[in-house]
Automatic annotation (TrEMBL):
Protein name: Uncharacterized protein
Pfam assignment, any one: MmpB
Keywords, in A-Z order: Membrane, Transmembrane, Transmembrane helix
InterPro entries with a match to the protein in the record: MmpB-like
Source species, domain of life: Bacteria
Residues passing through the membrane, by range: 20-41
Length: 43
C-alpha cells in the first residue's frame, strides 16, 4: 500500500449511518415477529 492511497475506511458519518440502519432493521424484524404473535393470539 502506498502512502498516497486513500484510506479504506468510510467516513465517520457513513459508519454511524450504517450502524443506525442495522439497528433499525433488527428493531423492525422484532416488531414484525411481535405483531405476528399478537395477531396469532387474537384470532
Amino acid at each position: 500500500m502506498l502512502w498516497s492511497d486513500p484510506d479504506d475506511k468510510p467516513p465517520k458519518d457513513l459508519r454511524e449511518t450504517e450502524v443506525m440502519l442495522r439497528r433499525l432493521g433488527i428493531l423492525m424484524a422484532l416488531a414484525m415477529v411481535l405483531a405476528m404473535i399478537v395477531l396469532g393470539l387474537s384470532v
